[in-house]
Amino acid sequence: MTDVELTRALERGEVPNEGFRHADHLRVAWVYLHESATVDQALARMAATLRRFAASVGRAGKYSDAITAFWMYQMAAVRATMPDADCASVLRAYPQLLDKALIDAAPPDSSDSSRDAPDRPVPRRSA
Q: Three-state SS for 48?
């Protein structure tokens, strides 16, 4: 399934909870970043989609604006360095994005949802 196909299936509610892992979240984020005019628009789309998904699988309370913003800004930072890459190439270049614990290493204020934070952590590219 392509990233776009996964995104559309998620939007239609066709992805089971156990079939939607962290890497899949990143793939959808990448699609929204490419399809949206701004990071804020991509973030809004991602937030709406994840809220619907979480509610549809009975886990509405698990959704977090702060965590969604953190990961969207991580992906946006990488997109700025690799604008023409596909998500698979990005994840090969920045495998630390696949580590859900990356958010734990971020400064305390980096996972907030403020939109004007130029000091967001940028993942280091693997050698």
A: helix
